[in-house]
Amino acid sequence: MYDVTIPSKIESVVVGDFVHINLSTSSITAIHKRKNILSRSYFGKTKELAANLDHLFIVTAGGALLSEDFIDRTLASCHYEGISCSIIFNKTDILSENHDLSPCYEQMGINVLRTSTKVPGGLDSLQTFLAEKFPAAANHESDQTPILAFCGVSGVGKSSLINTFVPGARQRVGDVSHTGQGQQTTTMALAHVATLAQNTRFIIIDLPGLQKFGVTHIPSQALAHCFPDIAAWSSSCRFIDCTHTKEPECAVRNAAEQGTLFSSRYKSYLRMRDETLQHEQLRK
Q1: Which of 80, 101, 119, 227 is a good FRET partner for 86, with 20 to 30 A between their CA atoms?
Q2: What is the pLDDT of residue 184?
Q3: Are 164 and 150 in contact (CB under 8 A)?
Q4: Are 137 and 7 part of one and the same domain?
């Protein structure tokens, strides 16, 4: 491990970046080209969160901690950058049937892993997924250590998951407040090396608890393509440039009205589209 400085001529460095270091000056001299970058943004201000991710886990839980809008925004950002992702529905030991996740995600082909750090075998599904997702690493046939990241709103248990996998991490764990909302305990992105799933080494990035996930870095015209379920219906729209808002014979809107497209997903798309359009209009 090195303590290094970042010269002003170097662009911002984020967790997951591969860099060149001049050991004689203890400074970063260059950043390797990134294969992806996970970002969030609000009206011209973009925050780069992590780079070169092999997989992102969106961690959620039941009750007031469940935000499908947050999940949809993160999924769209991952799709825009080509980052594979799964959903971890955590704290299943305290769930009631009324607090389960919408079935839309599993119907879209997204892996939903239900976990708990409080019961024996509560992380078995995650261990199995990692072994199957990264077989080359599990068989020690790859020289590259997979980079994983965990993100979610504050209080969903990301730090508890990482403490289980990386005992030396000693991430702070906060209680959920009386409102049901989480209290943020991770204040900056931290990376840890962990041995999981058949003695496979991973780099695990714990991202700060995020209450909102802005998407103004995604062009409004590209947004529908970041919703695979909406994109699948859009090929049947009357107009090739359909925005799926008010055009006649819009297959997407019709599917949402008829229930063949989950209304929660369509509403997320509309909210995100309004956000990106407002940003684009301000830039003109």
Answers
A1: 119
A2: 42
A3: no
A4: no
